[in-house]
Each structure stands twice: as C-alpha cells, then as structure tokens.
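Q: My labmate handed me this sequence with no annotations at all. I'd like to see what the chain might look like in three dimensions before we decide whether it's worth expressing. Could you predict it?
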Amino acid sequence: MNLKTQTRFLSVLLLLIATLSVLCVLGLITLGILHLTEPAPAETESETETESDTDVSTDPQEVFLESTADAGMAYIDQMIFFGESTTSHLLARGVLSGGTETHQVWTDSSNTRMLSSRITSEPIVYPPTKESLTVADACKREQPTYLVLSFGLNGILNFISTPSQYVNNYGKLITAIQTASPDTKIILQTVYPVSSAEHFGVDVATLNGYIETLNGYLPEIAAKYENVRVADTASVLRDTNGQLLPDYDNGDGIHLTASAYEAILRYLRTHSWESQKGQSNS
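A: Here is what I predict for the chain of 282 residues:
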C-alpha cells in the first residue's frame, strides 16, 4: 500500500470515528431530554403529609338527645363545659351552680378557643388549681361524667371551604378526651345562631346558613364514637328567620345573655342523657 492510499484510508477512518462520536453525543442528549420531560413519579402518602378533603354526609342519625323529663340542676352539676367564647361566658353570666366561681367551665386566658389542629396541645387553665393543662390532662385528672363541647363559629369560613378540618379536628379532640377519660360522656352542642355577621365578610343569612351546614356534620361525627351524642341547644335560640333571638343577644349579635344560657341549660336538663332509651352509641 503506497503512501497516498494509506493517507486516504486514515482519512476515511478518522471520518468514521468522528461520525460515530457525533452520533453518540446526539444519543446521550436525546436520552437526557426524554428523562427531563418524562412525568415525575407520584409522591406517596408517606413522602408528603396531606390532608384529604373527606366527603361529609349530613344524613341524620340516631345520635340526638331526645326530649325527657327535667333532670334538674343536679344533672347540670355533673357537666364540664368547653368551647368558644360563648361557652366561656357561662362563667361570667353566673348561671351555673357556684355562680362566677364555678369550676365547670374550661377555658384559657383569652376566654375563647378555636377548633384548630392544635386543640389538643394548647393548654387551658384548669379551674381547681389554675394550672395550665391540656384538655386531655385535665380530663385525666377530673374524669368528668359529662363533657359538653361547643365549636364552629371561630374559623367557620375555613371549615366551610374545607369541611374535613371541622370533622377531623373534632375527632382529634374526642379521641384525646376518651383516651384520657374513657367513661366520660361527650355532648356536642349545635353551633349557636347569630344576628350579626359584621366581622365575617358575608351577610347574616349566609353566615347562619354556614352554621347550619356545620350542624349537619355533627351527627356523623358523633356516630363514629361510643358515648358521644348531639344536643340541639341552638334550636331554642333562633327565631323564625334562623337568627339569634333579640332577647338572647347580648348586644353584638353573637354573644349571649344570661337568659339565653338559662334556656340552653333548660334544654340540656330536658334532654337528659341518663333518661334516654334505646341509645345506639351508649
């Protein structure tokens, strides 16, 4: 093979090598593009903490406390009340045994609570000792016969947009109470009506409609647990338009008069748990 032939052969070989190199580079680039554009694998529940918006049924169930003979104040004296400011004001109105010195109302220094995801971790002021305790710790110490809960107006716009927050947070609270005090009977009060919606960004009819939506969730919540019932105390507070009766309005359209609390206690006395028959969840 002469020099000219050798040179031509080397040129062809180098051309082939260069062509193969270019093809390899193009192949790698193509694989990279395909990898970048391919959809990422779905995150599993263990990799990301999510809270699903669970479907909530409003079908009535056999969990409402029914009308009974008047059980008297001795029955009310067995109750602990825990809830929002409308519950805390039971203390200020002096309608319970012990008046304004009663130990039957659990609250914190702000005299209001919201049914948030921190409901079981944020402390209350435990009345007998003035200690800061979680609700569960207070229940473990007190072992209440009845615990009356009332939540819904604080945070209602969030609860309406994401009903699972209301349902799940109530469930979290109930579970904590029952773990600490298994024999305690829990009464969920229906959310009280209002006659003003000034701070909610909606009109009063809409707000009361939201309240009724939350009240519709309470039977489902109660039906999931033993020893949980619903008391429709809100029914004695509303007028024919679904608003808070004027005689029960303390002046701001939300908070209640002493006579309103007397009506609520009368309802509880005449819908006594201890007198119920055929109870479906104890």
